[in-house]
Design brief:
Length: about 750
């Protein structure tokens, strides 16, 4: 046995007794599945769901490291030989997601994460918008060892991904918030571990997300965007105050966002776990399984209606077998309890223009407990190095009893800091490179991984976020009285992992073809409502070349400052002024100069390479047909814009009709390729679209279903929310049409390049 094997065996033996027996068995089973797949004895689809349920993802791989150039990359990737296996999973590193329930970590856990980041990854721990940690560039064969070392300190990766209950998130201020009626941490802990591996949550068609909020007025847990959003509530009964929860169901972002509906006005604590279990059983039984694009709970709630869904949940709840965990939360309360390390102190009064004063202003929150503060450690792009993790672990032990949490804005939150220690803490964080100001302000830009590591990423969300953050910090925008509280959030594609729908200013990556070249663009989404638990979503305005997004951001902020009425929020301003005016403000920023005039437009942020999506090349124009298609898609975009403006004015039925017209116009535009003389009859257009694009597999079926479903409904909408959703669907159909058109151009270009083979006459 080699020295390396002996060393590995030694630490595994050392950890063995520290791992919960059930977790140890689960990891052993996973490692067996890994071996079977490597030997080709397990079907890839089965193994994929197996590894996803353990948090192991495939990722985009770019010569071994990210190319964003924005975060410190102090350590080289660990050397690994090229693995042999039945698929590419063994040849390129992937990503390991680590589940951190309600974001709570200890200093010891942070140190273990640092070790894993150095030994198996690229030296970076990435905080996600769901209070998870992600390690990138991890080899699949290393994942069992990573899981064991995490399990030894009480961390599991089980159900971090896959068709499962994902990480249960909660407000990081729970228990210390000045506005929350009570601490939701014990409830979050109880539900997270009750649902973990529960047999009633193993047969979902898609993922299931749960959040806890301490109050209704702040962002907290963003209840309205979750499958199950749970908000603390109190009521007076016979002269005494009772604690309970408002429960919302059926929310979700993704390509088409849905607002969660009120499931329970007031749910007693002892009913929380069985109600969540009942919801899971209904979702598993009635939720879509075959069509993944319609398999989230939001579609089931929308199809059944909240009243019928509520009836089914109550009926299911009544049939459940009693479980002692429903009422006995003693373990959860003990696990979630916190206390300070030091006595309370007096808050300092620094010069507001000093570094310390600016940090106090933006990064420090006064707890409801007198003399104590909570501090946000701002992490640009959500990244923290292994070295910084260790330094932060030491800092946490110095000032607290290991009371830290991750946040959905990709930061770290330290709790129970004695106010008299704030200046000393600030200097310690400065020494660690962790005293960035502007936390939870407009400077604190949120972004998903985008093209750095995500296979679905279209544009560089991280590269753009880094550039915007740099410019906003240079201007001191986070301390601007008018715009400092705004949020900017960026997604690399329409799936909203960066939560762009909830931001005051949101962007999501897309692509446009200009004179045969692919050009990175970001669609602008304005007027989301981050406060009140994400109670309203924004609507798309238009697509802007990626290179002009910083200028777009500056102009949006300047116009807001100029036109804003006293006390007017950005959302209220957007809907008062209207998208027509805002689009006109940005009109000159929409154009792309020719490639030979300014090639920088054809390169994404923080990337030296010419922009492309996948392996697409430079297609050639096809004369009049291409012009006709482009014209038709531009017309569809215009109609969608009219639909948005009409919805803003309050006429949701007309807005729905316009969204339907935009879908038909989109389909007709593409049909000009095979049928230049296609008519305008909707029945004919849908029939021919099926024949020429859907059935041959030349159009993304997930988006084609928007057209088919709306056509079958005769373009009718029943509520403003439905009209909003249909408008979003129309926009996504147009985006898919652009991609289908580009695919057509590439096929034609490839056919022209293909050599002609001479045969015998």
């Amino acid at each position: 046995m080699s020295d390396k094997d002996t060393k590995t065996l030694s630490w595994k033996t050392h950890l063995f007794e520290k791992i919960r027996p059930d977790w140890r068995e689960e990891i052993d089973d996973y490692e067996k599945a890994l071996l079977l797949r490597r030997e080709g004895r397990m079907d890839e689809k089965v193994f994929m769901e197996t590894r996803l349920r353990r948090g192991a993802y495939g990722q985009r791989y770019d010569n071994g490291r990210r190319h964003d150039g924005t975060a410190s990359r102090e350590l080289p990737l660990p050397e690994r030989e090229v693995r042999k296996g039945p698929d590419t999973l063994w040849h390129a590193p992937g990503m390991q997601r680590i589940k951190i329930p309600f974001g709570r970590l200890t200093a010891r856990q942070l140190e273990v994460l640092a070790d894993l980041a150095e030994e198996y990854s690229d030296g970076i721990c990435h905080v996600t918008t769901r209070q998870d940690i992600q390690l990138h560039y991890v080899h699949i064969e290393d994942t069992p060892d990573i899981m064991r070392r995490l399990a030894a300190v009480g961390v599991t990766t089980r159900e971090a991904c896959g068709n499962t209950v994902r990480n249960v998130t909660a407000c990081p201020r729970a228990g210390i918030c000045r506005d929350a009626p009570f601490d939701v941490t014990p409830a979050a802990h109880a539900l997270a571990f009750y649902l973990l591996g529960h047999p009633d949550t193993q047969n979902f068609g898609r993922k299931f997300k749960v959040s806890f909020s301490g109050c209704s007025e702040h962002a907290c847990g963003l209840a309205f965007m979750h499958d199950l959003g749970i908000v603390a509530a109190v009521r007076e009964q016979e002269g005494r105050i009772e604690e309970g929860f408002h429960v919302y169901a059926g929310g979700g972002l993704g390509p088409v966002p849905y607002q969660a509906k009120l499931l329970e006005e007031f749910l007693p604590p002892e009913e929380l776990l069985p109600t969540a279990q009942a919801v899971g059983r209904i979702f598993a039984r009635l939720g879509e399984k075959r069509d993944r694009s319609r398999a989230r709970l939001k579609f089931l709630v929308d199809r059944l209606g909240i009243d019928e869904f509520r009836r089914l949940v109550k009926e299911e709840r009544e049939g459940l077998t009693e479980d002692e965990r429903w009422k006995d939360w003693s373990g959860a309360r003990e696990a979630a309890s916190e206390e300070p390390l030091k006595a309370p102190g007096e808050f300092p009064d620094p010069d507001p223009n000093s570094d310390f004063g600016r940090w106090i202003s933006s990064n420090v929150y006064r707890q409801k407990q007198h003399g104590y503060a909570a501090v946000t450690v701002a992490l640009p792009l959500g990244d923290i190095t292994a070295r910084q993790c260790r330094l932060l672990a030491d800092i946490v032990r110095k000032y607290t009893k290991e009371t830290l949490r991750l946040t959905v804005e990709q930061n770290i939150f330290l709790r129970w800091i004695s106010a008299s220690d704030l200046e000393s803490l600030f200097h310690d964080l400065q020494s660690a490179g962790l005293a960035e100001t502007g936390a939870e302000t407009i400077e604190d830009v949120t972004a998903c991984p985008g093209t750095d590591t995500c296979k679905l990423g279209i544009a560089s969300s991280r590269g753009l976020a880094a550039e915007l953050g740099r410019r906003l910090r240079k201007r001191g925008s986070g301390f601007d009285e008018i715009i400092g509280s705004l949020r900017i959030k960026i997604s690399g594609c329409f799936n909203s992992c960066g939560q762009h729908h909830l931001a005051d200013i949101g962007y999501y990556g897309t692509n446009r073809k200009v004179s045969g070249y692919s050009v990175p663009h970001f669609r602008v989404v304005l007027g989301g409502h981050w406060k009140e638990n994400g109670s309203a979503y924004g609507l798309a305005v238009g697509a802007v070349p990626s290179r002009r997004i910083p200028e777009t951001t500056e102009r949006l902020l300047e116009k807001y400052r100029e036109r804003r009425r006293e006390g007017e929020s950005f959302r209220d301003y957007v809907f008062r002024v209207g998208k027509t005016t805002i689009t006109k403000d940005l009109e000159d920023l929409l154009t792309v100069p020719p490639h030979d005039v300014d090639p920088s437009f054809y390169v994404d942020w923080a990337d030296a390479r010419e922009f492309t999506i996948g392996d697409l090349g430079h297609g050639e124009c096809a004369g009049d047909v291409v012009s006709a298609v482009d014209f038709g898609l531009a017309e569809a975009e215009r109609i969608v814009f009219d639909a948005q403006v009409t919805l803003d004015s309050g006429d949701f039925r007309k807005a729905g009709k316009l969204a339907y017209r935009a879908m038909i116009t989109t389909a007709r535009a593409l049909l000009r390729l095979p049928l230049p003389d296609i008519g305008t009859n909707p029945d004919e257009i849908v029939r021919e679209f099926r024949s020429h694009f859907i059935e041959p597999g030349r159009f993304n079926l997930n988006f084609a279903k928007y057209l088919i479903g709306f056509h079958e409904a005769a373009g009718e909408t029943s509520t403003p929310e439905h009209a909003h959703q249909r408008i979003e669907e129309a926009q996504l159909l147009i985006e898919a049409a652009h991609r289908a058109h580009q695919d057509h151009l590439e096929r034609e270009a490839a056919a022209k390049r293909r050599p002609v083979t001479k045969g015998a006459s």
